[in-house]
Amino acid sequence: MIFPLLEAVLTQGGRALVATPRRDVVLELAPRLAKAFPNDTRAVLYGGSTERWSNGALTLATTHQLIRFQEAFDLVLIDELDAFPYHNDQMLYYAADKCRKKSGSTVLLSATPPVPLQRAARRKRLACARVPVRYHRHPLPVPKRLTIPTINQMLRKNKLPSKLVEALQHSIQRTAQIFIFVPYVKQVEPFVKLLRKHAKLLNVMPQIIDGTSSKDAVRTDKVISFRERSINLLVTTTILERGVTIPKSDVFILDTDNPLFDAASLVQMAGRAGRSSDDPHGFVFFGAATWTMSQRSAISQIRSMNTMARQQGFLI
């Protein structure tokens, strides 16, 4: 979606910036931009990057890196504008503003924009383009409800509930890559061990089950292994809710009724499924003991986008 904007600036000799809050997303986008714009000089900037002194016609950076620029870019694209650390950080807002040339343009991107921006768009105070469909023109996967015990109850009993086992078996049988989101970092490793204990029941080898979080020093390596399918089930936190595209993915969100998972977070996690044209449908499961307003709102938002896409004739 952003490639035509970038191309319009680059073909006229201008400079373009794509900024995103997280290093993981920068590393995800870098090879895709390199493939799309092989003839343009590029700089990829994040904490620890070897290119920190590089300048390019096309710059991809974490939002903290914008502090180093002054009126440098004709086009500034801020991706995931509602994500930490960009969201509510006035210093980063200022940095994003000052790095654009006075004659340049800024475009803000998000699947879940903050309420004040949504309100401004509705009142015509902010120019807005709403895109309700992915490039492959299939509906967004609508989450299904799994009424199951909490993660802590599963860990105490050292047992997976049958409903969860059946859903996981279905995803495994269709050779999907499986995201399993949990609320807390401390739950990742114990739940990995529980899944490995049930590997035979799931008809997988224990070594293809792993976990990662913000505290994991080799998180990037594990995401690469997940993409390359040497890991098939990845237990993780919201650190991977954005920017990671894994073909043929299914998503399981456990303890979906946890207050840490608001509607925006649930929409983002659900968005890991159905991203590829080879497997546009995917499956998303909300696993929880209770049904919350956040879950209802997330499903309502996804259905609303599908309805809009259908009404506007975007869907195949």
Topology order in helix (H) and strand (E) letters: HEHEEEHEHEHHEHHEHEEHEH
Sheet bearing the most strands, described?
Answer: 6 strands, parallel
Q: Which structural class is indicated by helix and strand composition?
A: alpha/beta
CATH superfamily of the largest domain: P-loop containing nucleotide triphosphate hydrolases
CATH topology of the largest domain: Rossmann fold
Domain count: 2
Give the overall form: globular
Strand order of the biggest β-sheet: 6-11-10-7-9-8
CATH class of the largest domain: Alpha Beta
> How many H/I helices?
11
Averaged pLDDT: 93
Number of DSSP strand runs: 11
Parts with pLDDT < 50 across at least 5 consecutive residues: none
SS strand fraction? 15-25%
Radius of gyration: 20 Å
Whole-Å distance between the termini?
18 Å
Kindly state the percentage of residues in helix: 25-40%
Question: From the 3D coordinates, which CATH architecture of the largest domain would you assign?
Answer: 3-Layer(aba) Sandwich
Pfam families: Helicase_C
InterPro entries: Helicase_ATP-bd, Helicase_C-like, P-loop_NTPase
Keywords: ATP-binding, DNA-binding, Nucleotide-binding
Domain Helicase C-terminal: 167-316
